[in-house]
Each structure stands twice: as C-alpha cells, then as structure tokens.
C-alpha cells in the first residue's frame, strides 16, 4: 500500500501553507448547504487562486492546462483541502466532466473545454438524476434528437446541486430510443444553462441548501457539445468518472468536526464532571476515531491499487462506509453533547457554536452518487456475484 507519509512532505507542506495563507478561520464551506452570497463570493475567489496555482488540473496533461503531477499528489492535495473544509468549487467540472473528456473527448474538446475548467471560466453542474430515474439511471427519459448540425434536448433533471450557479449542465440523455438494452443509446452533452428552453427551479433541502429541478424544452445544443461519441454515455460513466482525481475524502472532512467535538468534551461538564472523563463519552469518541481510520485505510488502499494497476473494490467499499458514517457520526455527537446540541448558533447556550444541529441535518444528504443501500447491492451483485 502507498504510504502517503513518505516522500511527499514538501508537497503536503506547500498545500498546507497555501491554505494557511488563503483560507481565514470561519471560511469553511460545505458545497451542498452553504447558500450565503458572501460565502459563495469568497469560494469563487478562493478557487480562482487554486486555479492560478495550476492545481485544478493537477494530474492532467500540460497541453490541456494541467501539471502532469501524480495521483498521489492529487490525493494529498484533496486530503488537505477536505480536512480544512476549503471552498473548492466546480467539482463536477474538474472531476466528472474532465474525467470523461480525458477518456473519450475529441482533441478539440480537450484543447478547449479542459483549460476552461482549469481556469474557472466554466462551472459545471451534474445532470444525471431524473424524477423517475435516480438510482436506476438507465431508466432516464430525457432525450436528444438531431436537428441539422445541432441537437434538441427535452426532459427534466433533478437534485442538481449548483444548478443555479453553473454555466453548463453535464447531462446524460437518450439519443437512440430503439436501443435493445436500456443502458445503450445514451450520450452526454454540455447543455448551456442559460440557453432558451432551460428553466431552473429551486429544490430546498432540510438543511437549508439549494438543489434544483432543471427543465429542458427543445433546448438547442451544438454538436460540439456532444461529449465524445454518440451512444457511448454508459461506457463513459463506467470507465471515466472520477479518473481525473479523488473527488470525495469524507473522513478528512470529518476530522475538523471530530477535533471540535473532542475539544468541547475537554471543557464541558455534565454532573460536575468533564465529558472527556466519562467512559461512555470516551467510548463514543473512540468509535468515531475508528470510523475515520478505517476509511483512511480503505482510501489509501484504493489509491495504492490505482497506482499499481490492480483491480480493487476498496474505493467502492469506502464510499459505502463513508456515507453510512456521516449520520452515525452526527448521532454519536448528539449522544455526547446532549440536548444543547439542538440549539442553533443564535442561542448563547448552543454547544459547538450551534454547528451540531447543522451537522445532524446535513448528515441525511447522502444520496449523491447513489445511496449506501444501492451501493451495497452493486457490491453484492457485481463484486461478489450474488443474485439480485
């Protein structure tokens, strides 16, 4: 397994110094839930500074705006950014879209679209899920039909995070309705979210974050925005998503919350005794620590397998555990803190500056990229060969 503690000290120090210089306290940012304009304005400016360093396309070829650095360095970069809860925008652009372009995009698309992503000229949103086709993505009904040199896209996407703040929608649509199998005849387009025929409606979640419904009615998309080749969309999903980076390191994000919770336990008392001296509290803190460590080992195992060209299910297992650990962490934190955890930041009695109630509400937003139940089923059927 790759030991990330060896050989990359200078790189990790450089990343940490950048964060120390450019990320003031209180600017932590949770993409799915922070909607305050001042936070978004700062997030845009911060991400542009990351872009100026060349770090958006860290592993990409230099010809397309990248630095050709190693995937291990990419892992370390994102580990430190997640740990600081840094406001790195355009995840769909530098991860999903870039991975697809590098795998199947034309040379012209790579030469134009990738530098635009790397420079923050274009921000992308994800257009996969539909009201009737979420986990069953192959059941999507949004269609694209050719019209001269263009395509006309009609349908609806939902749960579109950043939809109201993005330039382009990475939309998978049905381009061959006569295909014999449901996952065939699908293609990806970059749909201009400001084009005539596009309607964006808010979909507010329980924690105050905004996702969106995206309605498309005969939206004209130029052929140059057909990503790669027609009817190869499913292949692009299975072969290219996330290949341009390590998009989620949830255990690193959890570390900041764990540090705050542990520090709280060293000062707060219950029944005249510090929480940290309560064996039950210490046991719950230990459970959280173990959860994070197991995820870290799985993440680094998956990275090692990638570096060494080995087939591995470690990353898939990691995603299941990471998703399930988020609500478990929130539950344990509430059990440790008690009723004061329900108070928001406006209350002088709120524990942890009122953050805990937000952690709890945010913990239920684990549907992105598939729920843990769906991922367990995929691991069972495809990984272990079990019947459905």
Keywords:
alpha+beta; Butyryl-CoA Dehydrogenase, subunit A, domain 2; 3 domains; 388 residues; 4-stranded antiparallel β-sheet; 43% helix; 9 strands; globular; 3-stranded mixed β-sheet; Butyryl-CoA Dehydrogenase, subunit A, domain 3; Butyryl-Coa Dehydrogenase, subunit A, domain 1; 11 helices
The structure class reads alpha+beta
Strand order of the largest sheet: 2-3-7-6
Q: Mind telling me the CATH class of the largest domain? A: Mainly Alpha
Q: Globular, elongated, flat, extended or rod-shaped: what is the shape?
A: globular
Q: List the secondary-structure elements in sequence, H or E.
A: HHHHHEEEEEEEHHEEHHHH
Give the second-level CATH assignment, the architecture of the largest domain.
Up-down Bundle
Number of helices: 11
Query: What integer is the average pLDDT?
Result: 89
Report on this model:
With 388 residues, the chain is of the alpha+beta class. The chain folds into three domains: 9-89, Butyryl-Coa Dehydrogenase, subunit A, domain 1 (Orthogonal Bundle), CATH 1.10.540.10; 124-231, Beta Barrel (Butyryl-CoA Dehydrogenase, subunit A, domain 2); 250-383, Butyryl-CoA Dehydrogenase, subunit A, domain 3 (Up-down Bundle). The chain contains eleven helices and nine strands. The protein has helices at residues 9-22, 37-52, 71-83, 91-104, 107-118, 233-240, 250-265, 279-307, 314-337, 355-362, 372-383, and strands at 124-127, 143-147, 150-157, 168-174, 186-192, 198-204, 210-222, 269-270, 273-274. The protein has a four-stranded antiparallel beta sheet with strand order 2-3-7-6, with no helix packed on it. Strands 1-4-5 form a three-stranded mixed beta sheet, covered by helices on one side. Strands 8-9 form a two-stranded antiparallel ribbon. Helix 4 (91-104) runs antiparallel to helix 5 (107-118), helix 7 runs antiparallel to helix 8 and helix 9 packs antiparallel against helix 10. The radius of gyration is 22 Å and the shape is globular.
């Amino acid at each position: 397994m790759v030991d990330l503690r060896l050989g990359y000290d200078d790189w990790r120090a450089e990343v940490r110094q950048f964060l120390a210089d450019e990320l003031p306290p209180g600017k932590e940012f949770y993409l799915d839930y922070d909607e305050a304009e001042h936070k978004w304005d700062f997030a845009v400016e911060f991400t542009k500074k990351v872009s100026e360093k060349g770090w958006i396309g860290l592993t990409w070829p230099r010809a397309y705006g990248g630095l050709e650095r190693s995937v291990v360095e990419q892992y370390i970069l994102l580990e430190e950014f997640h740990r600081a809860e840094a406001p790195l925008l355009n995840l769909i652009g530098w991860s999903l879209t870039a991975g697809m372009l590098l795998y199947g995009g034309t040379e012209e698309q790579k030469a134009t679209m990738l530098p635009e992503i790397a420079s923050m000229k274009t921000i992308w949103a994800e257009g996969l899920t539909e009201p009737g086709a979420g986990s069953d993505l192959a059941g999507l009904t949004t269609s694209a039909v050719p019209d001269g040199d263009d395509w006309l896209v009609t349908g609806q996407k939902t749960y579109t995070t950043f939809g109201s703040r993005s330039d382009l929608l990475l939309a998978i649509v049905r381009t061959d309705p006569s295909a014999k199998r449901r996952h065939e005849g699908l293609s990806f387009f970059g749909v201009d979210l400001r084009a005539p025929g596009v309607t964006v409606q808010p979909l507010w979640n329980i924690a105050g974050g905004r996702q969106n419904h995206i309605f498309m009615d005969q939206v004209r998309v130029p052929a140059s925005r057909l990503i790669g080749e027609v009817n190869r969309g499913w292949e692009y999903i299975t072969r290219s998503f996330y290949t341009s980076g390590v998009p989620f390191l949830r255990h690193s994000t959890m570390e900041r919350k764990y540090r705050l919770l542990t520090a709280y336990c060293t000062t707060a008392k219950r029944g005249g005794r510090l929480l940290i001296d309560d064996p039950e509290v210490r046991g719950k803190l230990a459970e959280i620590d173990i959860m994070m460590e197991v995820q870290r080992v799985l993440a680094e195992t998956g990275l090692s397998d990638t570096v060494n060209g080995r087939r591995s299910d470690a990353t898939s297992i990691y995603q299941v555990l990471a998703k399930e650990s988020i609500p478990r962490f929130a539950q344990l934190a509430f059990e440790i803190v008690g009723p004061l955890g329900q108070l928001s930041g406006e209350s002088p009695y709120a524990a942890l500056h009122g953050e805990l109630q937000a952690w709890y509400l945010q913990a239920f937003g684990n549907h992105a990229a598939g729920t843990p139940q769906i991922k367990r089923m995929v691991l069972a059927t495809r990984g272990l060969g079990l019947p459905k």
